[in-house]
From TrEMBL:
<dbReference type="InterPro" id="IPR038725">
    <property type="entry name" value="YdaG_split_barrel_FMN-bd"/>
</dbReference>
<feature type="domain" description="General stress protein FMN-binding split barrel">
    <location>
        <begin position="13"/>
        <end position="153"/>
    </location>
</feature>
<dbReference type="InterPro" id="IPR052917">
    <property type="entry name" value="Stress-Dev_Protein"/>
</dbReference>
<protein>
    <submittedName>
        <fullName>Pyridoxamine 5'-phosphate oxidase family protein</fullName>
    </submittedName>
</protein>
<dbReference type="InterPro" id="IPR012349">
    <property type="entry name" value="Split_barrel_FMN-bd"/>
</dbReference>
<dbReference type="Pfam" id="PF16242">
    <property type="entry name" value="Pyrid_ox_like"/>
</dbReference>
């Protein structure tokens, strides 16, 4: 596995966008000072051009209460099928923006909010990344598996993976 840190801000934002939107679901952790952390699987609504990650949530959730007290969050993205992973640390902002809620509204989201898109408990979390670490493949998944197999039986095609810090 080669180390490929990303320190250029634009490259960092693009890498976060690529991985977070590609994987889409993550474990969203709050209350980081009190292990075990409060963790919930959540779906990414958007990664904007600045690398901020947006989620729809409820004002009635533990996550909302925790973020109201402490804005530090940790997100864990994992897609073993594509061999892509992202661990992201940042700060959460609570945003009340009906236009953005309307933009993200769909049938799947509707299932979480019985009162519909006008539910006064719907809120947005905007995650501003501070630091991240990623793991992914240099090649297509099937090529990576083939290289791993050849390496395992004594061949040496070098590493097929990469990992690195993303400094935003």
């Amino acid at each position: 596995m080669s180390q490929e840190n990303i320190i250029n801000r634009e490259e960092a934002q693009l890498k976060i966008k690529e991985l977070a939107e590609g994987i889409n679901y993550c474990f969203f952790c709050t209350d980081l000072s009190q292990p075990p952390f409060e963790s919930t699987p959540m779906s990414v609504q958007e990664v904007d051009d600045l690398g901020n990650i947006w989620f729809l949530a409820s004002k009635q959730s533990d996550k909302y209460k925790n973020i109201s007290r402490d804005k530090k969050v940790q997100l864990y993205f994992s897609d073993p099928s594509s061999m892509e992973y992202l661990a992201l640390y940042g700060s959460a902002e609570i945003v009340d923006d009906q236009q953005r809620i309307d933009k993200y509204w769909n049938k799947f989201v509707e299932g979480w909010f019985e009162k519909g898109r006008e539910d006064p408990n719907i809120i947005l979390f905007k995650i501003v990344p501070e630091k991240a670490h990623y793991w992914d493949t240099k090649y297509h998944k099937l090529v990576s598996y083939a290289v791993t197999l050849i390496n395992a039986i004594g061949g040496d095609l070098g590493d097929q993976g990469r990992e690195g810090d993303i400094l935003v």
